[in-house]
Amino acid sequence: MKRFLIALFAILSSSVVAQNVITPPTTEEGFKVIELSKMDLSKTTCGWSTPKANKSIEGHPITIAGKTYASGVGTHATGRINLKLNGSAMRFKAQLGIDDEVVPNKGNVKYTIKGIGENGLSSVLAEGTIVSGGLTQNIDVDVNGYKYLIIDLDENGENSYDHVDVANAYFTWDDDEGAASPPYIVSNDEIGSPLACATIVFSQPGVRFMHKIRASQPNALVSVSDLPKGLKWNSERNLVEGCVKKAGVYTYHALVENDGVTQKVPVTLTVSKDLQQPVPFMGWLSWNVWEEAIDEKIMLETAHAAKRYGLDKLGYKYLCLDDWWHCCKERPADGFPEWDQAKFPNGMRYLTDTLHALGFKAGIYSDAAAHTCAGAFASYGYEKIDAKAYADWGFDLLKYDYCGAPPAAEEAQRRYTAMGNALKESGRNILFYMCEWGPREPWKWGAETGATCWRCTYDSRDYWDWGSKANGGHIGVIQGVDVMKHLWAYSGVNRFNDADMMMIGLHGTGRSSSYDAANYPTGRAGMTQEEYQSQFSLWAMYASPLTLSFDIRNISDDDLRIISNKEMIAINQDRMGQAAELVSDTIISGQQVEVYVKDLENGDMAVAVFNRGESTIHYTFYPQQAYLNGKKPYKFHDVWGISQDKMVGAEGYNMQVLPHQTRVFRVSRK
């Protein structure tokens, strides 16, 4: 009977021809437009039949209340559409209703549109009820700043006739001159994991290990089972800790209880003395200061200067060629990669042999598409050939970018896995540095590709706060912080979150990193020394790779003071590999203040107090904030030497923090 009534009503409706077909705009308010119907609908859920692009669920033109729409999605309750916003989406607009193919007063659907932030918390942006024969609900919501947008369609008691049209549906988004990725549809599995932490973890034999278990839902209860010998569960802090002495691959389980339902998630722990990246790598990358001008002479002068300043002894071992070492824009006809012979007249093997003889390791660059970000030939489809060439040339690291590649996370994972496998088969242990920028959340799947660190942010610029422009492919220090501060549970030994190259030392003299900053928003590039020092401090606390990007052939005394702080480097290079946990984000005297704590192998805690504001504040830090017994005294050692060592107990440590300053302390029991 239902099918008969639907068919009859469709025939009757077809006699009424809409005078105008409503179409979405091609651009709006200076932003690009991407239509919902042009995305992959196979990842949506639908209560009956399959979703249709630009058609109703029955395959008719989308028509609601007599109005016909050229674009939209026809679906059926109960259904769901999950969208990853990639930091580029500005607004979502649509007309929501029951298609006219349904008999009046039959369809009845409750809709909820939610935004999910980086912290996992959700906000309802729009909700209501739609009925057949009724008017459309106009949806126009600000999605800027959210990670996901969820469109939930509930059958509201009964799912007959619930033929929902998400009509004239589109996002406005900022593509930042081609550097950003548009929103796209993701599956329930991508956002539905009960855990918001790493499940593939690493350690070295005999080294203290720590794995912090974080549930996706704030009220969920977590525990573990099947721990290997040497590990125990800390129920107060929800973490696994201890020491595994024997090398091997172990499996234990995280148990997540929510609303009376317990899910069991396997965790893989690899204990090995041969991990590729037991601590974050340190080094120098050529792009920010040299771009396409990089050559053999500059690389070797840089190496000799790094040696002269003692950077190698501090841990800055990797000297990396970035984009445009290549001979040409298109790959040579024989299919093999070739360097620019004018720039590198003695060849790549000569370059790497010379760097190795000086005590350094050599890095090279490519991209998971047909061309690199700057337009040279790249490695997609040639992964095995290129990986073997890099090995034969003697390189020790590959930075692998994602310009020009498809936006879907699954495709990114496939492309990075292809190169990861090729590197493993190359005959040389080449560190795989994934440069994906974060939209596809590589911290969740990067370890499966063979990578041991992954970029989590868009490209850093020589600027403190890039403001709303951070929706695209360029960011300031503040925007990098806003990404990294939420990711601590995904970092660890041999799986490090990378916050991108540091800007220290550039002082507005870089190429695109400084030129872009000079054009936005104040017309000036560069930062203060306090700001450069804050970036160094925070990157070290996050356990990010520490990579310099300025001309290190001539380093000022004050820049050298910052990058050679051995105590700050020791915090970054701690063998337990923990990223600093954000324990407080609050307003003090009108200024935003963030407090981080980082567990260290010997039991000490590193503490950072970061004043994001424009005025000096006074802050009291209490040992309990670092999970320490507040009744006992602890030694607070100022890593930057601003104040003298002090024993602190329940009274806390009171400090002054200047604008944009980060105070860092090493807290110990002695």
TrEMBL record:
Keyword Disulfide bond assigned: yes
A single GO BP annotation from the record?
A: carbohydrate metabolic process
Ranges of residues in domain Glycosyl hydrolase family 98 putative carbohydrate-binding module: 30-173
| Keyword terms | Disulfide bond, Glycosidase, Hydrolase, Signal
Give the EC number.
3.2.1.22
Q: Name one Pfam family in it.
A: Melibiase_C
Q: Which InterPro entries match?
A: Aldolase_TIM, Galactose-bd-like_sf, GH, Glyco_hyd_98_carb-bd, Glyco_hydro_27, Glyco_hydro_b, Melibiase_C, NPCBM_sf
Please give the catalytic activity noted in the UniProt record. Hydrolysis of terminal, non-reducing alpha-D-galactose residues in alpha-D-galactosides, including galactose oligosaccharides, galactomannans and galactolipids
| Endpoints of the signal sequence | 1-18
Q: Name one GO molecular function term.
A: alpha-galactosidase activity
User: Gene3D superfamilies under this entry?
Assistant: Aldolase class I, Golgi alpha-mannosidase II, NPCBM/NEW2 domain
Instruction: State the CDD domains in the record.
Output: GH27
Which protein family is named in the record? Belongs to the glycosyl hydrolase 27 family.
Q: What is this protein called?
A: Alpha-galactosidase
Origin organism of this chain?
Pseudoprevotella muciniphila
